[in-house]
Structures are given as C-alpha cells and as structure tokens.
Amino acid sequence: MASKGSDEKFQRHRRVKLCVFCRNNGEPESVFKTHILKDANGRVNCPVLRAYTCPTCGASGDDAHTLKYCPATQPTIIYSPGIPDNGVKW
C-alpha cells in the first residue's frame, strides 16, 4: 500500500502539464509545456504525434503511436488450458 506522502507526490506529478513525447524529442519548453500527450481517456492530444501516421498499421489522430508502440508489432501471449506454464508467472 502506498504511503500518503507518495500519493501526494503522484498527484502533484499528474497535474504537471507537459508532453513527454515532445520533451523527449527535443522540442523547446515553449512547445512541450503547451499540451499533454494523452487525455484522461487515452486519446492522443499531442499535435505532433496526432499528425504522425504509423507506417505499419496506418494509425494516426486519436490512436497515433510510434513504431515502438504499434499494437500490430507487439507480441501476443496465448494461454491454452492444459498446457503446463513451466513455472512462468505473468
């Protein structure tokens, strides 16, 4: 269970308005502090990322993402009852 202090610290960080995508890509503070990456519903808010079209799946706008986060390239884990998991913990 998180302590009250860590909860308050988390809430403070949640209120900081900045776009991690733009900051990590070297955009100036005057750009990355004008918006957030995604809204509370997970829709992309960043104008730079929204304009990007994933070359793998064609997503852009609300569902935009970079190649690294493309759902079409993420591994799929399949669980089949009756097949031993060999002690793997998920």
Automatic annotation (TrEMBL):
Residue span, Nanos-type domain: 18-72
One of the record's GO cellular component terms: cytoplasm
A Gene Ontology molecular function term of the record: zinc ion binding
Subcellular locations according to the entry: Cytoplasm
PANTHER family: NANOS PROTEIN
Family of the protein in this entry: Belongs to the nanos family.
Protein name: Nanos 1
Organism: Oopsacas minuta
